[in-house]
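Per reviewer request, we include the raw input and output of the structure prediction for the construct analysed in the revised manuscript.
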Amino acid sequence: FQRLWLRPRVLVNVKEVDTRCTILGCPSSMPLMLCAVAMCKLGHPDGEVAWNKGAGAEGVIYMVPTLSGCSFNDIARAKLAKQPMFFQLYVNQDREKTKALVQRAEGAGCSALFITVDAPQLGNREKDRRVKISHSGARVQQGSAVKKSEGTSKALTTFIDPSLCWEDLDWFASITNMKIALKGIATAEDAVMALEHGKVSAIMLSNHGGRQLDGARSAIEVLPEVMQALRAHPKYDSSKFEVYIDGGEEEGTDVYKALALGATAVGVGRPVLYAMSAFGQEGVRKCIQIMKQELEMTMRLMGTKTLADIKEGSVITKDLNSHITPVPADFNSLATYQPKRTQAATSGYLSAPPPSSSSAASSSAASSS
């Protein structure tokens, strides 16, 4: 996002700005949804329930994950009466289990099914592999052996079907009335294939938080090529085929940039996860409020009263595809926020200076004598 520059317009009456929109036909207070993040109870006892309650209170949509820490029933019961809800699906190799999961989600009020398509195998998540587990795996894995030596993520995803392919989308359309979206599109070619399939209502561009394939581009970088290919296709209708991006949005300006480049909405995960871990439901609400306030501020400063006024020409994309380019330093992380410190440094274990070579030699001589 730092490689995108803005072109603000002035002397526009922006006393009132409107961030409201619809996402797959569902009303939202802003073009943002809370994306599926697994195992949220690791961060806070309320887990995904806090996400759903926070989303409902702020008028945005929550995408419930397959690998939730809370039970699906508890999450569903947390939503408001008319609150929309989406469901993220990891496809099980046992299709009867997949069918039961999909139909349970639909029965609980989910209106869209986001099928994760970029994880036929889990990526090499080295930090996660160093953390061994003792639990028995996810409920969806009951009755099967769980390998525990390669980290939590690896242990919880052994059920995912690597044979998932385009032909399977017809089967999904036959078992549910939910709108189907594909989460994990990373090229214009696959975006066009999703459009041509006919059963797909939306795609979400994503590199899975940068944790799947080393070298995969970020969603915001893929977005221009996807929109160019879709707009050139005779079947494309933006009101019937929506495009979202997932990953990297930290501020309201990031949301604005995504919309300017053609996205219908963005998905946010990690900022909400951190907020929930610290403050529970109120943290989720505050995170959404900050993003909305920043988007409103950006719209005013850019001279755009409504989302429809946000145009591609308001963003300069010349440097977007240059992976080696001078960019301004991130002063938020370098100078404003509390610096990152390891637990050892915080506890003072690293404060003692290492022994000098002379003292080390004296100690060695003393030991030998």
